[in-house]
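thread: overnight batch results

M.L. [08:02]
morning all. the overnight job finished for the chain we discussed friday. pasting input first so we're all looking at the same thing
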Amino acid sequence: MTLPYRSSNPSLNVDCAGKVWTLTLNRPDKRNALSADLVEALIAAVQAAEQAQADLLILRGEGRNFSAGFDFSDYEQHSEGDLVLRFIRIETLLQMLAQTSCATLALAHGQNFGAGVDLIAVCRQRVASADARFRMPGLQFGLALGTGRLSALIGGQQAHQLLAGSLVFDTAKAEQLGFIESVQEPEQWSAVIEQAAQTASLLDSTSRTYLHQLTSCPEQADRDIAALVRSASAPGIKERIAAFRQAAKS
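M.L. [08:03]
and the structure it wrote out:
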């Protein structure tokens, strides 16, 4: 008998209800910011869901929001090489989610930034509560993470406007752009999950794999990782992050 999967990292809760797996980011005191440990726990959980041939993979966040994105709390103590690797591992996670045979559902709420917004964008179904807000400021410190994926989702011109101005957009704008599919409050999410699970169960994992491969751009993954590596590895990433964070305080 296969035992239920358990994350060894307390920053990620994994609930396996049959073929529906729920991954809950569990760092509410850090607004679910993506530490290196949390990213690795997410990668391991996605791999386990794949191996278990889960039908549906749900991403959600504990506390006030889904995710505040990259965890900058200790970046000064990391080498530039360490920081580059952390960004690469986030892109690795995003590509795993983009390519998984599982159906994916993001349930978002609260203030969400950067790589946290990328985690929402990569899911094939995206639902948010009315209080949700989104912002992707990575290009302000020279990081091209999620840019191509956002463009593919909402269109190049719309993505350009959002990213060039590092704009905050609310659920009304997100729904208009197609970034989210619907606005549903958390008390309605159980019905959303039930419907998503029913839809996911209509196809087996092999059929879902064919569907995802034939409705996506195979060159996107290589472009995304190349842009991320070039941008993150350009000399001075720590100084760029420091200047960005200082400007955000002023």
